[in-house]
Structures are given as structure tokens and as C-alpha cells.
Write a structure and sequence with these properties.
The complex is a heterodimer. Chain A is mainly beta. Chain A has strands at about 5, 10-15, 20-25, 30-40, 45-50, 55-60, 65-75, 75-80, 90-100, 105-110, 110-115. In chain A, strands 2, 4, 5, 6, 9, 10 and 11 form a 7-stranded mixed sheet that branches. Chain A has a 4-stranded antiparallel sheet with strand order 1-3-8-7, with no helix packed on it. In chain B, the strands form 2 sheets. In chain B, strands 2, 4, 5, 9, 10 and 11 form a 6-stranded mixed sheet that branches. Chain B has a 5-stranded antiparallel sheet with strand order 1-3-8-7-6, with no helix packed on it. Classes of the chains: A mainly beta, B mainly beta.
């Protein structure tokens, strides 16, 4: 099956610093990648939709200048949390949709646990 | 807006059957997904329903009624490894997924 990787799996950073999270589709090309965040025992909340070669589309309430998304190729999207604060601590999950997929299934990465101290 | 409801927790005995219900009110509908998520891990795909009726896949089955805005996931012959969170997600008209809060299923011996 389709595999999506995320790096790093865990990161601890100090308040005010920036953190970059990578999302890669390993064995397929993805026109569209999605970024979610999940708080403990809560649902996945869509943050933004990332399309290769174009600007990301952010959901209402998500600050685009704080959560920078770059989708440089059909296999890589990055999320940079800028000037991180403790309230940004969360589980960040990406997913990818196949370029020529016949379904709308999204393949999820293993997630990145961000802790801001 | 999107409104997707599912129970918070369910407990069942190994070998038993559990049914997880999901009701939804969404702006547009292009199908409903069920995912399994173990703590600290990514969701894994279980099923996709876009037409009314029952889809059976081994021990797991999923049902959809579009007119009622209702789906359920049926887990049969429960095993300890089935203890996880089960997420109901609706694909809207713009092909984005909206998730319910998840149902934590605990399987007891």
C-alpha cells in the first residue's frame, strides 16, 4: 500500500524558535497533501491543503504566517511552525492523495509530536 | 459547517461484536470513511462508503444511509488488538475530510 513518512517523529523546541516538519510520499506521487493537528483525545482538525506548485489553502482560523507550508515536489510537503509557543504543542499529521488515484482515499503519515517548552 | 457525532467510548469483551454509530450533518457529501487509530500513531484506512448499504470486509463491516446521515462500523470477533480509536470522517463537496472526535474501543479479556 501507499506509504507516507514524516520527519521528525518527535521534536522538542524552545518557545520562539521555528520547527520544520517534512511529509513525504514514498512510493507514489501526490498532487495534494493535507496537514492536520490533533489534541489529546480530540479529532483531527484540518489546518491546510497543500497543492504541488501552488500556494496552500488554509482553513479558517489558521494563521498562514505562523504555519508556513511548502509543497515543492509531488512527493514532499513541509510545514514550518514559526515562533513556536507552548500552545502550538500538538500532534501534527500529514496525509497525501495519489496523483492518479481512482478514489479520494488519503494516506496518513505517522505524525509528529511537537512539544514547545 | 460540519457536524459529525460518534460516541466517546465503548467497551466490549474479546470475541464479541461492537457497533460504532456515526451521524453527520455536512455541507455536501462525497463519501464516508472509517479509520482506526492507535494512540500516538497515524489513522489507518478501514472502509469507504459512498452508496447506501453494507460493505463487508473480513471482520469489519460498514453501513451507510445517506438519507438519514448515518453510518456504523461493525467489528466482529473482537480481538485485543482491536482496542483503538475509531474515526468517522466525511468527504465534503470540496473533497476535504472532516473527522468526528473518535470512539475509543476497549476490548477486555
Amino acid at each position: 500500500g501507499a506509504v507516507v513518512s514524516q520527519h521528525p517523529s518527535r521534536v522538542i523546541c524552545k518557545s520562539g524558535t521555528s520547527v520544520k516538519i517534512e511529509c513525504r510520499s514514498l512510493d507514489f506521487q501526490a498532487t495534494t497533501m493535507f496537514w492536520y493537528r490533533q489534541f489529546p483525545k480530540k479529532s483531527l482538525m484540518l489546518m491546510a491543503t497543500s497543492n504541488e506548485g501552488s500556494k496552500a489553502t488554509y482553513e479558517q482560523g489558521v494563521e498562514k504566517d505562523k504555519f508556513l507550508i511548502n509543497h515543492a515536489s509531488l512527493t514532499l510537503s513541509t510545514l514550518t511552525v514559526t515562533s513556536a509557543h507552548p500552545e502550538d504543542s500538538s500532534f501534527y499529521i500529514c496525509s497525501a492523495r495519489e496523483l492518479d488515484g481512482s478514489s479520494y482515499e488519503q494516506y496518513f503519515g505517522p505524525g509528529t509530536r511537537l512539544t514547545v517548552t | 459547517g460540519q457536524n459529525i457525532d460518534q460516541p466517546t467510548e465503548m467497551t466490549a469483551t474479546e470475541g464479541a461484536i461492537v457497533q460504532i454509530n456515526c451521524t453527520y450533518q455536512t455541507s455536501g457529501f462525497n463519501g464516508l470513511f472509517w479509520y482506526q487509530q492507535h494512540a500516538g500513531e497515524a489513522p489507518t484506512f478501514l472502509s469507504y462508503n459512498v452508496l447506501d448499504g453494507l460493505e463487508e470486509k473480513g471482520r469489519f463491516s460498514s453501513f451507510l444511509s445517506r438519507s438519514k446521515g448515518y453510518s456504523y462500523l461493525l467489528l466482529k470477533e473482537l480481538q485485543m488488538k482491536d482496542s483503538a480509536s475509531y474515526l468517522c470522517a466525511v468527504l465534503s463537496n470540496d473533497y476535504k475530510l472532516s473527522f468526528g472526535a473518535g470512539t475509543t474501543v476497549t476490548v477486555r479479556a
